[in-house]
Design goal:
Radius of gyration: 16 Å
Structural class: mainly alpha
Largest sheet: none
Oligomer: single chain
Shape: globular
Strand content: under 5%
């Protein structure tokens, strides 16, 4: 069975793509969050959402700053707390909470835990990072954006 060709979303809707890329620009240029943390959150959110293109892309980005051993263990970060700083663990926990919001409802406990680690602006910026990656995943996965990985 052959898979039908999918649309290339950013060429079909360039203005929508421009708007999303504007958020990405803000994330990478307008926040105080470390670049490594941003890529780590991008990757974890993409793993949860099952977006192959984004997992491929953000794994490659994260490997530029994070050792392979840590990147490989990102899906099970909570089981290896000694590998990730308190701030990174808080970012990952909040990323999972927000990405799974239909199940978690962004609980008061999770919000309190994230608020205890992040300053208000950084928490909002982190949440924008999470929301943006969720938006990109919801385009990348359904339209089956290609991966660089080869057989």
């Amino acid at each position: 069975m052959t898979t039908p060709e999918r649309l290339i979303w950013n060429t079909v809707a360039p203005e929508g793509a421009k708007a999303l890329y504007g958020i990405h620009h803000y994330i990478t240029k307008g926040t105080n969050l470390p670049e490594e943390m941003i890529h780590m959150v991008f990757l974890r959110v993409s793993q949860i959402n099952g977006c192959a293109h984004c997992v491929d892309l953000h794994t490659r980005d994260l490997l530029k700053t994070m050792p392979l051993d840590k990147v490989v263990l990102l899906p099970v970060w909570a089981e290896v707390p000694h590998l990730f700083s308190e701030t990174y663990r808080a970012a990952l926990a909040w990323a999972e909470e927000v990405t799974l919001v239909s199940e978690t409802h962004a609980s008061d406990e999770a919000y309190a835990a994230a608020s205890a680690v992040f300053e208000p602006k950084d928490l909002v910026d982190l949440t924008i990072v999470i929301a943006a990656m969720n938006a990109f995943n919801r385009l990348g996965a359904p339209f089956r954006l290609p991966v660089k990985a080869q057989p």
